[in-house]
Amino acid sequence: MTDHTTDQWKQTPLLQAVRDFLAARETSANRPLYCALSGGADSVAMACALRLLGLSFTAAHVNFHIRGEESERDERFVRDFCRRHDIPLRVRHFDTLNEAQTSGESLEMAARRLRYAWFSELDGPIFVAHHAEDQAETLLLRLLRGSGLRGLAAMRTVRADGVWRPWLKVRKAEILDFLNALGQAFVTDSSNADTQFRRNFVRHRVLPVLHTLNPRSVATLSETTERLQAALSVYEVGLAALDAECWLENGGDRAVIALAAVRRRGAAGREWLRERLSQRGFTAEVAVAVLSARSGALFEGRDVCAAVHGDRLLLQPAERAPLPAFDARSYSRPKDFVPARAADRITIDAAAVVGDLCIRRVAAGDRFAPFGMPKGTKLVSDYLTDRHRSVLEKQAAAVICDERGIVWLVGETVDRRVAVHRSTQTILDIRLLPPDREA
What we know:
- The protein is elongated and about 100 Å long.
- It has 15 helices and 20 strands.
- A hairpin with a 3-residue loop joins strand 18 and strand 19.
- Strands 3-2-1-4-5 form a five-stranded parallel β-sheet. A five-stranded antiparallel β-sheet has the order 6-7-10-9-8. It has a four-stranded antiparallel β-sheet with strand order 11-20-13-12, with no helix packed on it.
C-alpha cells in the first residue's frame, strides 16, 4: 500500500461510511477494536480504511484449514500485511472438516459458526467488511429457504455479539476501486468461483440476471432489507405485547404457554408461538402441530421438550434432572406426632419397611396401593393421570422402594402398607435432599 494522507481520503465513500457509523454510536477510547482480516479484497480494504482514519485496532484472522496450501498462503499474506503496517494480529486455527463431520453441517456453515463464535469471545467489537452485494445475496438465499421476517431482515449493521458492518450500503466495485487507488494487493479465494456453493451461485449466476432486469437490483434489495428491519422492530413490539397474555410462566428453564390465548389471537397468536418456540430450538412445523395436538402429546426440540397438557404447553429441558438423594432417620413415635405429607418429606411406619431403601424412576407396569384407597392396587401411571399430571411430570416421576415394592411415590403419596397407624411405634422420616447435598 502506497502512502496517502487521511485528508486525501476523507470524502471516499468507504471511509465516510465508517466515520458515519462511529459517529452514530458511543465508543470508548479504551475499548479494544478488531478487524476481521481474511486477506481478501473486502477485509483488506476495511483494514486500510481503519488505518487511514487513524483508528487503533487488532486484526483477527481465522485459518479454517479447508483449502490446503491456499489457506496457508492467506495466513502468510495477513501476517506480512500486519507486520508491514504495524497492526497487532490474532490468529485462530480450526479443524473445520472434523467440526463439520461431527456436527453434520456443511463446511460453509461450520466455518461460519466457528468464526462468529470466536469473534464473540473477543473483548471488543469487530469490523466485518460485508457489503451491499453480500446483503443482497443473503436476502435472496433466505427467501429461497423460506425464512420468516427475522431472517429476511438479513444482516444487521450492528449485532448483539459485537459484529460491526458499516459497509452494507457500499458496492463491491467501490471496494476494488479503493484498493486499486491505494495500490494495495490482496489474495483471492479460489473457492469463491465455485458455483456448487449456493452463495456463489447467487453471486455469479443470479445477481447478473437481476442486474439485467434492473440495474439497481442490488441497491433495491439493500433498501428492502432496511424496510424489513424496520418492520421487524414493529414485529418485536407485537410479540412483546402478546407475551403477557400467552406466557403463564416464563422463568428459568421451565415455562408454560396458554394455548387458549394463542388460539384466540388467530394468525398473530400462531406467529407468536412459532417465534417463541423457534427461540427454544423447535421448528415451525412443531408450532403448527402443537395447536392441533391432543393432551399428552410430546415434542422434542434440540435441548427442550414440549408437552401439551390440556390447554397448556409445558416446556422444560430435554435432559431430565438427576434423581435426588434422600435421608431416612428413625425415631420413637412421640405422643403429639402428626404425619408429614410434603412434596419433599414423608413419615412412615419403620416396622413396615423391608430391607434397604432405594430411589428410581417410575417404570412401566409399576403398581402400588395409594394411601386412602381402601383395597387393591393401582398402576402408578393411572394414579398420575387421575391427578392430572402432565406427560413431562410422568416422565420425571420417581419412587422410593424397599424390597417389597413402592414405599413412596415421591411428591404424591405413600403406599398403604407403610402408612402410620395407631399401633405404629417407630417412625421413619424420609426427606429429599437439596441438589448440592448428599445423604
